[in-house]
Specification:
Blueprint lengths: L1 H7 L23 E9 L2 E13 L6 E12 L2 E12 L4 E9 L5 E8 L2 E8 L2 E8 L5 E2 L8 H5 L5 E7 L4 E17 L2 E12 L5 E5 L5 E6 L4 E5 L5
Parallel strand pairs: 9-10
Antiparallel strand pairs: 1-2, 1-15, 2-3, 3-4, 4-5, 5-6, 6-7, 7-8, 10-11, 11-12, 12-13, 13-14, 14-15
Length: 235
C-alpha cells in the first residue's frame, strides 16, 4: 500500500546513467518505441507505451520523447501524457510538459534555460507558476515514466547526478554505481544489459538495466516492490 500511495501522489522515481564506455557522441539517434508492463507486488497495474525520435546529429540533434502511461491503483487511476524535448550531444532538456489525468488532473508545461526550470501548472481551479534550480548536466525524470532513463543512460556518468522532477517542483541529487553486465530475457529474446544502482539522497535504491544504446530494458525499486518490464526487446 505504501507504493500505491507514493505513485498516486506523484513522488519521483530517481534515474540513473549508463556505465559502459559508450560516448554520447557516438550514438546516431536510433529511434526507440515500445511498451513497459508496470508491476507492483508482482501484479500488473498498468502499461507505458512510448516513442523516442531524434532528428539531426551532433550539436544539432533534437530528441522528442512522448508516452502514454496508464496505472490503475487501489487509491485511484493515474494517467500520464509526457512530452520531453532535448537538444545537443548530451541530450540537454529544453522543454517538458505532462498532462496528468485520473483522480488528480492537472497539466505542467515547463522550460529549462539559464540554470532554471520554469513551469506553469494548470489545475481545474486555476494556474500556478513555479521556478527552481536546474544544475548543469541535469536531466528530467518524471515519476512512473520508465523510458526517461534513456536520457540519463546516454550521458555515461558515474558519481553524482542532478535530476529535475517536474511533478515535485524540485531538483534532487543521486549517486550512481555500476554493477556490470547481465543477460536478461525480454519477450522471446535474450538481451545483453548493463545494470546500474542509483541511490537518491534520502530515497529508495533504484535498479536500472539498459542496453548498449542506452535503451531501457527494466526498472526496479525493491523497497516499493515496483517494476517496469519491457515487453519485447528493442528493435
Amino acid at each position: 500500500m505504501r507504493l500505491f500511495r507514493i505513485l498516486a501522489s506523484s513522488l519521483p522515481l530517481i534515474a540513473t546513467v549508463l556505465v559502459i564506455p559508450t560516448p554520447a557522441a557516438s550514438q546516431t539517434g536510433t529511434d526507440d518505441r515500445g511498451t513497459f508492463q508496470v508491476l507492483v507486488g508482482g501484479r500488473e497495474v498498468g502499461t507505458e507505451e512510448f516513442l523516442i525520435q531524434q532528428t539531426g546529429t551532433g550539436t544539432g540533434a533534437e530528441i522528442v520523447a512522448t508516452a502514454r502511461v496508464h496505472l490503475q491503483l487501489p487509491t485511484g487511476s493515474l494517467d500520464l501524457g509526457p512530452r520531453l524535448r532535448t537538444n545537443g550531444l548530451q541530450a540537454q532538456p529544453v522543454a517538458y510538459e505532462v498532462s496528468i489525468g485520473g483522480t488528480s488532473p492537472r497539466r505542467i508545461v515547463g522550460t529549462v534555460a539559464d540554470g532554471r526550470f520554469s513551469a506553469r501548472i494548470v489545475t481545474p481551479t486555476g494556474e500556478q507558476l513555479r521556478e527552481y534550480l536546474a544544475s548543469s548536466g541535469a536531466t528530467v525524470l518524471d515519476d512512473g515514466v520508465a523510458h526517461h532513463y534513456y536520457f540519463l543512460a546516454r550521458r555515461v556518468r558515474n558519481g553524482r547526478v542532478p535530476i529535475i522532477i517536474p511533478r515535485e517542483n524540485r531538483q534532487v541529487m543521486a549517486t550512481v554505481t555500476a554493477q556490470g553486465e547481465e543477460t536478461l530475457r525480454v519477450g522471446d529474446a535474450s538481451v545483453t544489459a548493463y545494470r546500474i544502482i542509483v541511490r537518491p539522497d534520502g530515497g529508495d535504491e533504484r535498479r536500472i538495466w539498459v542496453d548498449a544504446l542506452s535503451r531501457v530494458i527494466r526498472v526496479e525499486i525493491p523497497a516499493r516492490d515496483y517494476a517496469a518490464v519491457r515487453t519485447s526487446a528493442p528493435a
